[in-house]
Specification:
Helix 2 runs parallel beside helix 4. The protein has a five-stranded mixed β-sheet. The chain has about 190 residues and is α/β, with parallel strands linked by helices. It is globular. The protein has five helices and five strands, in the order αβββαβααβα.
Length: about 190
């Protein structure tokens, strides 16, 4: 369950900045010569910010059920969906004062940004792309108000370099650190 963003924080806001990131940490084989054969851990992070970058919400999660074919692009899409769900949750009880007319979504994965913009075809990422589009459509529908008014928000997708996505990168890393610490604690308690 995601922690809700206070509706009061979003009251009167007409522009939001949504940032996302995903991270995959591969296990290292014993020989050190062959490429990693499986994923050790994957995580993602999301930030909902005011237009000036002031964070309203920041969070990260560890992704479960990832296997050897899970890529960094998969983790990035999971980060986007996590971010959109956090924003969607904030509109669960529509407040007529929350009427964002501009939603700017930033990430450091060109693949995800290009596919969400429609400038690249999501082949292997089709499932992720469709899920993200569905969450975004629901967000826009809810943000239209209780009467189902058509929504006039403009959604922008922008690629940013990793150095401009440090907040979400830190959320990814923090989630992974907590999960690793919990795993180590479990092993120590079992011995």
């Amino acid at each position: 369950m995601l922690a809700p963003i206070s509706i009061l924080l979003l009251s009167g806001i007409t522009s939001v900045l949504v940032q996302f990131d995903g991270s995959v940490i591969h296990s290292v084989p014993d020989s050190g010569t062959s490429p990693p054969s499986r994923i050790s851990m994957a995580s993602c992070g999301a930030a909902i910010c005011l237009e000036d970058g002031t964070p309203l919400s920041l969070g990260g999660i560890v992704l479960s059920d990832v296997g050897p074919e899970f890529t960094s692009a998969d983790a990035e899409y999971e980060g986007l969906k996590f971010a959109l769900r956090r924003l969607l949750q904030s509109t669960h009880h529509p407040d007529p004062r929350f009427s964002a007319r501009r939603v700017e979504i930033r990430g450091d994965c060109r693949t995800v940004i290009d596919q969400m913009r429609g400038s690249s075809v999501p082949r292997r990422m089709r499932r992720h792309h469709e899920e993200a589009q569905a969450i975004l459509a629901e967000l826009l529908r809810r943000n239209g108000g209780e009467r189902g008014r058509p929504h006039s928000a403009t959604v922008y997708f922008e690629w940013v370099p990793r150095s401009a996505n440090v907040l979400c990168d830190a959320a990814c890393r923090a989630a992974a650190r907590v999960a690793r610490a919990d795993a180590i604690r479990s092993v120590l308690e079992a011995t």
